[in-house]
Amino acid sequence: MDYKTTFSEIYAILKTVENTGKVAEYIPELKNVKASKFGVSITDISGKTSNFKDAEESFSIQSIVKVLSLILAYKEEDEQLWKRLGVEPSGSAFNSLVQLEYEKGIPRNPFINSGALVICDVLLDILDDPKKDFLDFIHDISGDNTINYNKKIAASEKSYAYTNTALINLMRSFGNINNKISKVMDFYFHICSIEMSCQQLSRIFLFLANNGTCPIHKKRIINTNQSKRINAIMLTCGFYDEAGEFAFSVGLPGKSGVGGGIIAIHPDKYSIAVWSPKLNKKGNSFLGTKFLEAFTTITDSSIF
Ligand code: GLU
Questions:
Q1: Which atom of ligand 1 is nearest to the CA of 257?
Q2: pTM of this structure
Q3: How far apart are the first and last CA of the chain?
Q4: I need a surface site. Which of 7, 59, 140, 279 has the fewest CB within 10 A?
């Protein structure tokens, strides 16, 4: 399939749609990204990658990393992990405090901020040198040693971390955080700051389209059952309070980040990454979501 032609046709149509999104400003450093950037990369199950526009330019993947931190914790803790958090869609904003209070500090799922902070707390208990070990894990599953943290973005988020600080303190008060709050947050901000391009994302996530084994370097990363479960959580919780809308319009498991990236998986077929920094009101890439909707519609390739 010649994806490049399809990509440029969709892009030409979407160019005529007014982009009402806004670049995330609550992490000051993210404001410096050029809002007009746009990239797409698809890697099919045979490992063949097709890129479009800024697909090789790195950006901060933000919450997309939550899939990878979940996977590392899940590999170590197995089903024990679900004692600390759930697998239900929250129907609330990614940084909402409300639900967390009446559900006694147990986050609904690993992709809202509270859940991702609990996963970081779990990883601090498991890893000897958390920041180094996490990066080693990313290098190992991607086979790409160039991937790194962006310390400026991590520091920028830390300086405005009021809501995340409230979330973690609330969970601590309910006994669902074991480590020092500053350590968990420092680790969380670092993993969110990791930079990758669409090309790197579509390649690193391909194992989720292949029952947990990377078709490129043939390493098994998780087992088939775990891969099923991660895809299920991505489908139901990957887009916060827009998860239903994303499943309805795109029809693929996926995960977004406030850096404007989205990764989506078509089991047995491909993984696709899109990047466009302006976000819609729910914090998901405006153009990225529209692009994926058009892509799965035109190519007849959603999971439904
Ligand atoms: N680091 C961001 C935060 O905690 C991640 C949010 C996102 O990408 O959705 O607010």
A1: 8
A2: 0.97
A3: 20
A4: 140
